[in-house]
Design a protein that fits this description.
- It is a single chain.
- The chain is of the alpha/beta class.
- It has a domain of about 70 residues: Ribosomal Protein L15, Chain: K, domain 2, CATH 3.100.10.10.
- A 3-stranded parallel beta sheet has the order 1-3-5. A 3-stranded parallel beta sheet has the order 2-4-6.
- It is elongated and about 90 Å long.
Length: about 150
Amino acid sequence: MNLSDLRVKVKNKKPHRLGRGTGSGSGKTSGRGHKGAGQRKGKVLPYIGFRGGNLPFARTLPKRGFTALRPKEYQLVNLCDIQKRAGSVEEITPEVLEKLNLIKDNDRPVKILAKFGNEFKKKAKIKADAFSAKAKELIESQGGVAECLNR
């Protein structure tokens, strides 16, 4: 006999039946107590963070910072991916990046990043909505052009 052979003996438990007389242990009020909203049918539980009528915790904290209503959400493309997939393409635009499956929608803004070492070895004219400082530096060091689209 091993420890792995041991099993816990579980008895078959029937579901607890509410409202079946006082002898059942949960008859009469069926575990709901006396009077009040919790006893009524169709009771609505208070929202998450409700503290019994006190001011909710989230509202006690001060508001800080700023959230833009329509923030610009860039599609991010790394230079190493462009180098791998672009091949001999000289001018890289959002339309080309969409064909290469590097972005999903060429109408949304694109940002070029340099998330790798100094290994970018492609001379190309890259058009995008934004560039990281490192990416712009790497493109121009190879004799390429990093052009920002104004859209």
